[in-house]
Write a structure and sequence with these properties.
Layout lengths: L1 H14 L16 E5 L7 E6 L2 E7 L2 E3 L3 E4 L5 E6 L2 E9 L2 E7 L6 E7 L1
Antiparallel strand pairs: 1-2, 1-9, 2-3, 3-4, 5-6, 6-7, 7-8, 8-9
Length: 115
């Protein structure tokens, strides 16, 4: 039994502290299409290839000048375009919350699901 305890402690020591990357959750990519807001009249799609934004559908049109960046931990994506910006925050592996801001309009916030 003592031998088992010593071996277990050695394995834990080799893995590093509990807060180390060995115990951290894997970073999730935004890859895919995230959509929502349809019931509130502000339907949107945010389309990613990996963590690169390749398309934004907002207010019944595709935005042609959208750019984006993803936080180092992958929890948040920030997208900007000439007349607005969106911040997407993960709430699960296939769910997120979007907040879209545009000049002269109240912010729109709604749930997203990964298609």
């Amino acid at each position: 039994m003592k031998r088992f305890a010593v071996l277990s402690l050695r394995l834990l020591a080799a893995a590093g502290p509990i807060g180390s990357p060995a115990f951290a959750q894997a970073r999730q990519s935004w890859d895919g299409t995230w959509a929502g807001g349809w019931s509130g009249g502000t339907g949107a799609q945010f389309i990613f290839a990996g963590d690169d934004v390749i398309g934004v559908y907002w207010r019944d049109e595709y935005i042609d000048d959208a750019q984006g960046s993803v936080s180092p931990d992958g929890a948040t994506a920030t997208l900007t375009w000439r007349l607005g910006e969106a911040v997407l925050t993960r709430t699960g592996s296939a769910s997120a919350r979007a907040t879209v801001r545009e000049p002269g309009r109240p912010a729109a916030s709604f749930a997203l699901k990964k298609d």
